[in-house]
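Re: the multi-chain job from yesterday

Posting the exact lines I submitted so nobody has to dig through the queue logs.
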Amino acid sequence: DIQMTQSPSSLSASVGDRVTITCRASQSISNYLNWYQQKPGKAPKLLIYGSSSLQSGVPSRFSGSGSGADFTLTITSLQPEDFATYHCQQSYSNPRTFGQGTKVEIK
Amino acid sequence: QVQLQESGPGRVRPSETLSLTCTVSSASVSNADFYWSWIRQPPGKGLEWIGYIFYRGSTAYNPSLKSRVTMSVDTSKNEFSLKLNSVTAADTAVYYCARYESSGYQNAFDIWGQGTMVTVSS
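And the result, structure tokens for all chains:
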């Protein structure tokens, strides 16, 4: 199985801050990396697919980058509705695996 | 818009079988661009992919659960199902059904159900 490791596990930030979350795969996964946002009590929502493609309807302040084993999700100018948990997920091989999640909290 | 809705018992006794169904609206489970998936999340923990099924019945399961999982699809009802047998407390989780876009465009879980909490308890 491909292990996905996110860092940090949690962070505190203020509205307007730039936030960066990293995801590392245990082997190269090309660009088969997706990011999801999950709010408490809700299902995850697809934000980014293919490492850097923005899902329809997702604000442009979200961006993704990376290839191989190292990936980044960036939120420029954090908004109140962005406080949530973010998960990375690899689609390179089965079993599909997720990172442990990064919780973005209000400072 | 496309919607997925899970249904099934909220509580299952240890050693019994967990059974859930996902009903799909405004999309067809017979669409060859998608796999139909189950994902779970134990309380306070991360997401675990259980497996997925194609409309023709082919499946892929997580090896960690493969011996206990069966998925099926009913194209006439536009729904798909999950059975997990011999459950223990470790199977207590929110269970999500999700659509996996597999045509090569996204390769991602693009639509999710709201989730259903299943507790394993006597």
